[in-house]
Amino acid sequence: MFEKYSAFCCIIITLFLSGCRHRPYYAHISKFPDQSTRATCAVRFDSDQCDRTKEPMCQEPLVAPVEMKRKFNELSFMELQRILDYTKATENKEIAVKAVQHMIPLCNDQIRLEKLRIEIADLYFDLGKLEQAEKLYKEFVALYPNSPHTEYALYKEILCRYYDILSCDRDQTITQETLVLTQRYLSHSEVYKQYITDVQSIEKHCYNRLFEHELSIFDFYINKGNYKAAQKRLDAIKTKFDKRLIEQEQTILVAEIELAKLQKDTALVALKEAELIEKFPQTKSSIVAQAKKTYVTLF
User: Fold this and answer.
1) What is the arithmetic mean of pLDDT over 136-146?
2) Alpha-carbon distances of 272 from 118, 281, 287, rounded to whole Å
3) What distance in Å separates the CA atoms of residue 215 and residue 243, rounded to the nearest whole number?
């Protein structure tokens, strides 16, 4: 009886081992924060046919360099580089700025130093610290006038100024400064081509903003009933506005017609309306409609 039972057990064990020989098993990547994460990141292996060329379904999370626990002014360039790589991967721009600040004085490679200067300016720009970013872009342009990155630095300097422009009823100093930068960029149009469309658009917007500012002063005098001051402001606008912006000329003509009407100068009204229709035929219907409205009001 015992011999039969032993033989039966041997058969069962043999079958079990033969089944295990081809059964795959699973290995889990360790060091994950919780069991659920660990379960989703299982890497499947086969005992007979293991393809080690395939990447795992997900990678181990980034681990902060041990150097981050030390004072940055005690670290070497390579240690700071590891911190920079980690902070860039984790989008920690504040610490990345700190790392680059300490890397710059330690850098002996001029090509690498040039890239670090652009990198720290970009980090400040991304953080919304436009004043610091603009200063660094300006310094880069001065230090590396012939660098392949100079066009980019000048373009970003323009953006830093442009994003600070105030509304048309406020001081327009920043608008004027932005125009100086756009003209500097466009003066190198035979070389600077990558951002030329954006810079031209910014320049046009700046001219329009200055025009709106002047027009807001004109409107202020009109509302105060000071037509003499309004006329002086309009005369100044006519000498300042950029003839490339045709829509401004149309607005000036409309303003002249409005002022002439308020001063009851019918001859000037007729003259300016005829000039407006000649230069901008599409305005004829609106002028006729306005004339009919005035006629109905008077009679």
Assistant:
1) 96
2) 53, 13, 11
3) 16
Q: What is the pLDDT of residues 264-290, one digit of tens each?
A: 999 999 999 999 999 888 877 775 565
User: What tokens appear for 238 in the block?
Assistant: 């006519």
Length of the chain: 299
* b/e map 230-244, b = 16+ CB within 10 Å: bbebbeebeeebeee
Mean pLDDT of the chain: 80
The position carrying tokens 């599409």 is: 282
Contact between residue 205 and residue 223 where contact means Cβ atoms under 8 Å apart: no
Crossing angle for the helix pair 266-279 and 246-262, to the nearest 10 degrees: 160
Could you tell me how many helices (H) and strands (E) the chain has, helices first?
A: 13, 2
What separation in angstroms does the CA of 116 have from each of 122, 127, 132, 206? Answer: 10, 17, 15, 31
CA 283 to chain centre: 38
pLDDT of amino acid 14: 53
Interaxial angle between packed helices 196-224 and 150-162, expressed in degrees from 0 to 180 and rounded to the nearest 10: 20
Q: Tell whether the torsion through CA atoms of 168, 171, 174 and 177 is positive or negative.
A: positive
pLDDT 10s digits, 156-170: 999 999 999 999 999
Question: CA 147, CA 124: separation in Å to the nearest integer?
Answer: 21
Mean pLDDT for 112-120 is 96
Instruction: Please tell me which residue, 219 or 25, carries the higher pLDDT value.
Output: 219
d(CA 61, CA 244): 56
